[in-house]
């Protein structure tokens, strides 16, 4: 079914009115290009999310890029060590505006169970995070929910940092 069937006013010589910023936001939110900063097990769930079973393409975010200059959403998926943090901040600086960040999983958001001197205890101490996806690892449905929240931020239905912060997550028990 094409747009003409969905929006009858587009058929023939039809037209509809909108605002330029809404039109741009509509395009942006349906064509997110994620950059997976995958460092550990959460990255496997990212791969599952992008694969056919969960099909992230349904939300327009299937064009995964490994160049920050071609991306607008960084998904931090996994543990980030002290030595890796400068790499992540450099990658963040290379992504053109407007850009967004998902912190995926307990390790990226809080350090998880790895409370050691080598482990960053939350990447939001160094780069701004828009959406936190809880879990160890988060299921693909949770990451998809995070992408939908990014879409809400892009089209102005939600503000940055409005969604769950690590302090609101259910604490994990160290085994
Ligand atoms: S949150 Fe869990 S699954 Fe994700 S990187 Fe950490 S230990 Fe691995």
Count of alpha/pi helices: 6
Residues in β-strands, percent: 5-15%
Domain module tally = 1
The global form is elongated
Radius of gyration: 18 Å
What average pLDDT do the residues reach? 88
CATH topology: Rossmann fold
Largest sheet: 4 strands, parallel
**In the CATH hierarchy, what is the class?**
Alpha Beta
Q: Which architecture name does CATH use?
A: 3-Layer(aba) Sandwich
Read across the widest sheet, the strand sequence of neighbours is 1-2-3-4
Supply the helix-strand structural class: alpha/beta
Ligand inventory reads:
iron/sulfur cluster
Portion of residues within helices: 25-40%
Low-confidence stretches: none
Tell how many strands the DSSP assignment holds. Answer: 4
Q: Would you mind describing this structure in some detail?
A:
Strand 2 (73-77), helix 4 (85-94) and strand 3 form a beta-alpha-beta unit. The protein starts with a helix and ends in a 21-residue tail after the last helix. It has one domain (29-158): Rossmann fold (3-Layer(aba) Sandwich), CATH 3.40.50.12280. It has a four-stranded parallel sheet with strand order 1-2-3-4. With 175 residues, it is α/β, with parallel strands linked by helices. Helices cover 31% and strands 10% of the residues. It has helices at residues 3-6, 20-29, 42-50, 85-94, 105-110, 140-154; strands spanning 34-38, 73-77, 100-104, 131-133. The structure holds iron/sulfur cluster.
């Amino acid at each position: 079914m094409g747009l003409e069937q969905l929006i009858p006013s587009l058929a023939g010589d039809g037209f509809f009115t909108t605002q330029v910023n809404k039109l741009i936001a509509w395009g942006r939110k349906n064509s997110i290009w994620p950059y997976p900063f995958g460092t550990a097990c959460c990255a496997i769930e990212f791969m599952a999310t992008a694969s056919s079973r969960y099909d992230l393409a349904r939300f327009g975010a299937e064009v995964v890029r490994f160049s920050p200059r071609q991306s607008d959403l960084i998904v931090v998926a996994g543990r980030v060590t002290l030595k890796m943090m400068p790499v992540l901040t450099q990658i963040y600086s290379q992504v053109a505006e407007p850009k967004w960040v998902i912190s995926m999983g307990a390790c990226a958001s809080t350090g998880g169970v790895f409370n050691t001197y080598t482990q960053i205890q939350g990447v939001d101490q160094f780069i701004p995070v828009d959406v936190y996806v809880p879990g160890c690892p988060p299921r693909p449905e949770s990451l998809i929910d995070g992408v939908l929240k990014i879409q809400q931020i892009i089209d102005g239905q939600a503000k940055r940092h409005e969604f769950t912060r690590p302090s609101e997550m259910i604490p994990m028990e160290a085994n």
